Amino acid sequence: MASEEKLNPENPRYRLPQENSRFGRPFSLFRSFETHVDIQEEAGIRAALELAGVFFFVSDKEDKAFHIDIYRGENFTGLITETDEMRPQWFSFREAHIQTPEQLPPIPFHQMWETDPYWIPLLVNRQPFAGRADFRTQGGKLLPSKWWFGTVLP
User: Fold this and answer.
1) CA torsion angle for 39, 124, 32, 76 (degrees, to 10)?
2) Organism's domain of life (predicted)?
3) What is the DSSP letter of 119?
4) Rounded mean pLDDT of the chain?
5) Strands, E, within the chain: which ranges?
6) Residue 114 pairs with which residues in a beta bridge?
7) CA-to-CA distance for 6 and 73, rounded, in angstroms?
8) Angstrom distance (rounded) from CA 97 to CA 60
C-alpha cells in the first residue's frame, strides 16, 4: 500500500530534474494532465501538482518559442522509483535559505543549465515566477545567450 509523504523544510525530499529526464529537458511541453501521467510513469509516484512558474525558451535552431509550465508538489503517494527516464536524487536547499539536513549534498548547479540558479530558489521559496531564456548553438552545444527570471504577482 502506498503511503503519503509530506515535503516540507523539516523533511525535504525535492526531486530536481536530470538533464536526460523529460522533466529536465529544456524544450518539453508540460501540461497538467501530461505532467501527472509523466510523474507517475517516470518516478513511480502520484502527486498533487500546482503551477509554480512559466518559462519561454528560444533557440537559434528553431523558428518558434517553447512554452514550459513548471509544477511543484508538496505531497506524494507511492514509492519513488528510478526509471530509464530519471534517477531521483535529494539535495540540500541551503542556497535557497531553507533548512535541510546536513547530510544532503548541495544542489549541483555546475551540472545543470546555467539559468537554473536564477529560478530554482524562486521555486523552492514558493514565489510564483516567469522567465525567458534565449539559447544559441556554440561548438555543437546549446548555451544560454540571454535570460531573465522574476517573481509575478499572484
Assistant:
1) 40
2) Eukaryota
3) H
4) 75
5) 4-6, 45-59, 65-78, 129-138, 141-151
6) none
7) 9
8) 35
- Structural domains in the chain, CATH included, are 4-75+87-151 (3.90.79.10)
Assigned C-alpha cell, 38: 509523466
Does this model's pTM top 0.90? My answer is no
Q: State pLDDT tens for residues 111-142.
A: 888 999 889 889 888 899 999 999 999 998 88
| Cβ 82 vs Cβ 89: under 8 Å | no
Query: CB count, 10 Å around CB of 111?
Result: 10
Encode pLDDT of 16-29 as tens digits.
443 434 444 333 33
